[in-house]
Amino acid sequence: MAGLSFDLLALQLFTGVALGAIYVLFAIGLSLIFGMLTVVNFAHGAFFMVGAYVGLFLVSLGGNFWLCLVAVPLIVGTIGLVVERFLIRPLYGRGIDYPLLLTFGLSYVMVELVRIAFGKSGYPFDTPELLQGAVNIGIGYFPLYRLFIIGVAVAVLLGLWLFLERTSFGLIIRAGARDPQIVRVLGVNVARVWLFVFGIGTGIAALAGLLAAPLQGVIPEMGSTILAEAFVVTVVGGMGSIGGAVIAGLLVGVVVSMTSLFAPEMAKVSIFALMAIVLLIRPQGFFGRAGLMS
Amino acid sequence: MTKRNGSKLISRRRLLTTASAGAVLAASPFRINLLQAQEATIKVGFPVPLTGPYGTEAQDQVRAAQVAIEEFNEGGGLNGRKAELLVRDDKLNPGEAATRTLELIEKEKVNFVVGSLSAAVQLAVNNITKERKVIFNSISQSDTINEASDFSRYTFHEALNPHLTAGAVGRYAFPKFGKKVAFLTADYAYGHEMVRGFQAAGKAFGVETLVDIRHPLGMTDFSALLPRIQALKPDILCISNFGRDQQIALKQATDFGMKKSMKIVAPVLLYTGRVAAGAQAFDGVIGGTSYYWGIEDKIASAKAFNDRFRKMHSGKVPSDYGALGYGGVRTLLEGAKAAGSLDPDKVIEAVEALKYDYYKGPQYYRKCDHQSVQSVLIIESKATPQKGDADVFNVIETEAPNDANLRSCEALGHKA
User: Which of B214, B225, B241, B255 to mutate to test the interface with A (most CBs of A within 10 A)?
Assistant: First the structure.
């Protein structure tokens, strides 16, 4: 292994953290929705993709990227509200498989609709001008845009944490996740809480899609690869645990990055190898509650 | 009650009419004509990956193949026998492609098979066609299909092969940009073949390989592979992958600022890929291609083909792989015309004898491996298109058709 310097190792580690930030952003919405609603949202990848397309559409209308950062989660979050209210809500109380199948089917419908509206081939999505190029971070050059993604991930996490831990609505959400019946008895409209949580989850997925667009361009199938990876992150972290998603997301990023350095052809497999190892040792994941899936 | 009776009555009446019409048709000479006309068409089976990651390319191949079919039919066909294209979706899957090809041969009784768009898929198709002694013209890149073990006299290869494209790009880039080379390679046959092509061409220039990083297919993030390449400080980075992998790798290498310290080249740059990924990712990248519509300014056959394509497909221009679909179908139909027959042996002889210029300048099939000897265009991505959205490449050099740039017949295992 020639040329394996400290700087390279440090940069590789940092690359893994940046990669992990993307996984985290995508997985927390999934984890939030599962933790609160016990809905395994297979349409999460589709919302991710729709986020990228809505961003593309707004930019083509003359909007800029910064505006999209706010508008895209709001627009797609609203779509999420409609989906929860009219499609998912009738299925509560019928077990975990009903919403799972529904969202699975929904994701196909969404991808097909986007194919009809925007065509099957992809579109480029330029990195915003302010964030182009690489900067020296002391151990080597690193793309400014990826640093920005780390920043957004931290901001989203902080915001989510403050919202859940420090607001009364957050308290209701947490209580509703634990025991919806008692919360309902206390006079809280639990249905509205769940509606809102689903909207937030899809909004974050859309934001992640928008942020991924300048990294890889935009195609209708972009949600499916990352969905598999995000499920690994939530399973490793423990289904439904937001803290678990954060730690597992970063860990997956670092594992992928380090595997890439020593055995690049194993980069994709390493994610699933990690999951297999964690599941052998701790079947419920890092912070998962046992029996949540049953 | 009455209503029900009425509907029964109608259906009985309709049944009678239909039956009698059928009887009249069966007895009439018209039916015999119909059958004869059906038997008379020349059927070209066309298995391509309409769905999946190369769907855009495959659809363009179909469009271009239709141009060849229509031209043939307008020109009177083969003594009045018209040709038709039977398109099948091979889903980019060797098993699916083999099944579809078998169905085309056994059920549809196709005269020729043209198509496929992946090294593995074309070998699967080739196995079926050579077994059934049906002529197959492959329009996908591969080195293996030229080798004696996979080749048969029923096999033709209209596409370039990776040895030739990578070699041409290397011969252009090594003297200009330097001798220390890093590779970022898709870990499958096509990727490995491109690297081998670069390295074979590089020997003459004393090129040194610093690293060959092999990545799995279908990556969406290359960031973890890039720091090591940067640390090695190569003069040239060869991106030896394809399709969306290539688009994403180029985009992310740009983000990492790698274009500032090294030249990025790719054996094959696709027109559709450049359009989908945008100018930013491809800016300054150099690569090879079999065809670019912009050569119509200099080459008359390209102009004629483009015009025809534009007319049939609402002003679109053909892509590189699209043009191969045209060339692949047209050479076999012209071969049949020259042979005056559809007998495979006669058609093979006629195609072997072709010296053709259908869309990109002079070409011919080399006798030993039926590889189409042709030019390779060296292209550079344009930062800003001037002539509309399709104006994405500059052709900076053309490597003339030359037997010597291919692997020799002996190296491929053919007996002289």
Answer: B255
Instruction: Indicate the helix (H) or strand (E) that contains B22.
Output: helix B2-27
pLDDT at B6 over 50: no
Tell me what ipTM this predicted complex has: 0.90
Helix (H, G, I), strand (E, B) or coil at B348: helix
- CB-based contacts of A24, cutoff 8 Å, min separation 6: A153, A157, A233, A245, A246, A249, A250
Query: Helix A222-237 crosses helix A97-118 at what angle (to 10 degrees)?
Result: 150
**Residue count (chain A):** 294
Q: What is the distance between the alpha carbons of residues A168 and B279, in angstroms, rounded to a whole number? A: 49
Whether A120 sits inside 8 A of B55 (CB atoms) is yes
Q: Which uninterrupted H or E stretch holds A143?
A: strand A141-143
Put simply, the answer to whether B223 touches A15 (Cβ < 8 Å) is: yes
Q: How many other C-beta atoms can be found within 10 angstroms of the C-beta atom of residue A153? A: 25
Rounded to 5 degrees, φ, ψ at B51 are -110, 155
Q: Judging by beta carbons within 10 Å of its beta carbon (0-12, 13-18, 19+), is residue B96 exposed, middle or buried?
A: middle
Give the mutation candidate from A60, A215, A254 for the B interface (greatest B CB count, under 10 A): A215
**Residue B236 scores a pLDDT above 60:** yes
Tokens 């271009």 -> residue: B64
CA atoms within 13 A on the CB side of A4: 6
Instruction: Pick the residue from chain B with its C-alpha nearest to A142.
Output: B256
The answer to whether A99 and A116 are in contact (CB under 8 A) is no
Contact list, B232 vs chain A (CB under 8 Å): 3
Backbone phi and psi for residue B6, each to the nearest 5 degrees, phi listed first: -60, -45
Which regions of B195-317 does DSSP assign to beta strands (E)? 208-215, 236-240, 263-268, 286-289
Contact B323, B359 (CB under 8 A): yes
Nearest-Cα distance to chain A for B210, in Å, is 10
User: At B188, is the secondary structure helix, strand, or coil?
Assistant: coil
Distance from CA of A174 to the nearest CA of B (A): 35
Out of B214, B247, B257, closest to residue A217 by CB: B247
How many angstroms separate the Cα of B70 from the Cα of each of B83, B311, B312, B323, B329? 8, 12, 10, 15, 11
Query: B114-164 pLDDT, tens per residue?
Result: 999 988 899 999 999 999 999 999 999 988 999 999 999 999 999 999 999
| Tens digit of each residue's pLDDT, chain A (294 residues) | 445 788 899 999 999 999 999 999 999 999 999 988 889 999 999 999 999 999 999 999 988 999 999 999 999 999 999 999 999 999 988 888 999 999 999 999 999 999 999 988 889 999 999 999 999 998 889 999 999 999 999 999 999 999 999 999 899 888 887 888 888 898 888 889 999 999 999 999 999 999 999 999 999 999 998 899 999 999 999 988 889 999 999 999 999 999 999 999 998 899 999 999 999 999 888 887 765 554
Identify which of B55, B215, B255 has the shortest CB distance to residue A264.
Answer: B215
Token pair for residue B339? Answer: 């042979």
CA B210 to chain centre: 32
Q: How close A127 comes to chain B (CA, Å)?
A: 8
Nearest CA in chain B to A216: B248
| Residue contact A217–B251, C-beta within 8 A | yes
The structure tokens listed for A26 are 């995508």
